[in-house]
Amino acid sequence: MTERRVALVTGASRGIGAAVADRFAREGWDLTISARGADALDERAQALRAHGGRVLTVPADMSDEEAVAALAARHLDEYGRTDALVLNAGMGAMGAFAAFPARRFDKLYQVNVRAPFLLTQSLLASMKSTVTKTIGAKVIAISSITGVYPEPNLIAYGSTKAALISMCETFNLEESVNGVSATSICPGYVDTDMSEWTKGEDAIPADEMISGDDVAEIAYSVTRLSRWAVLPQAILTRPGENMHRA
């Protein structure tokens, strides 16, 4: 087992995941990074290795249960420990309730809820193995403010993100006493590809959105808490009169 702290970050080739991986790498962590595209992962890994740590790349589709299992196994073979698990990979979709396709909802659930559940379950023992009297292991789930405060036409996406929040809170009831706790980070619109549809003159300018670095700062800060401090949820919203909106 390596002595350096290790994080696994899903959806790490771009956007929030890339920012989180960079933040951890700059702080001296070794990493496993995962996303669907091998080329994009390899390119990201080269940049991360410039900070001096080890970076393992494992392409994986979060809708594929076997790929999720293989990701966990490859990570454990490489490092033998997990100090932080960052569940960032996610899928977005818009649509009103009345006409939203059930099959698309199923796919959202697979990616946004089921894969995080399976990955956390697979790595729980390795997280417990790193716990000391003062230092715990952290599960950090990138949820959404739409999982806390509903938005029109985001019923399926918001429902899966609400489920992820609930999973983290229930996980804490069972596992935080063992030194492993979970935090759901729930940001409003972040300047990433997923929020591209909201940008423009009549919408939200990109430079007025939350940045990926903002989310990464919260994620890294969670790992600096002791095992005795549990942060179930962190809501990150934008300035304005209605702070219950994305």
Give structural notes.
By secondary structure, the chain is an alpha/beta fold. The chain has helices spanning 15-26, 38-49, 65-79, 102-128, 155-175, 212-223; strands spanning 6-10, 30-34, 55-57, 84-87, 137-142, 180-187, 233-236. A 7-stranded parallel sheet has the order 3-2-1-4-5-6-7, sandwiched between helices. Helix 1 (15-26) packs across helix 6, helix 3 (65-79) packs parallel to helix 4 (102-128) and helix 4 runs parallel beside helix 5. The protein is globular. The mean pLDDT is 93.
Briefly summarize what is shown:
By secondary structure, this protein is an alpha/beta fold.
First-to-last CA distance: 41 Å
Helix content: 40-55%
Please tally the helical runs, counting DSSP H or I stretches of 4 or more residues. Answer: 6
Rg over alpha carbons: 17 Å
Secondary-structure-derived class: alpha/beta
| SS elements, strand count | 7
Please report which band the strand proportion falls in: under 5%, 5-15%, 15-25%, 25-35%, 35-45% or over 45%.
5-15%
Summed over residues and divided by their number, the pLDDT gives a mean of 93
Strand order in the sheet with the most strands = 3-2-1-4-5-6-7
Biggest sheet details: 7 strands, parallel
Global geometry: globular
Residue runs with pLDDT of under 50 for 5 or more positions:
none
Order of H and E elements: EHEHEHEHEHEHE
Q: What labels would you give this structure?
A:
246 residues, alpha/beta, seven-stranded parallel β-sheet, 7 strands, globular
Write the layout of secondary structure elements.
Layout (H helix, E strand, L loop, with lengths): L5 E5 L4 H12 L3 E5 L3 H12 L5 E3 L7 H15 L4 E4 L14 H27 L8 E6 L12 H21 L4 E8 L24 H12 L9 E4 L10
Parallel strand pairs: 1-2, 1-4, 2-3, 4-5, 5-6, 6-7
Helix pairs in contact: 1-2, 1-6, 3-4, 4-5
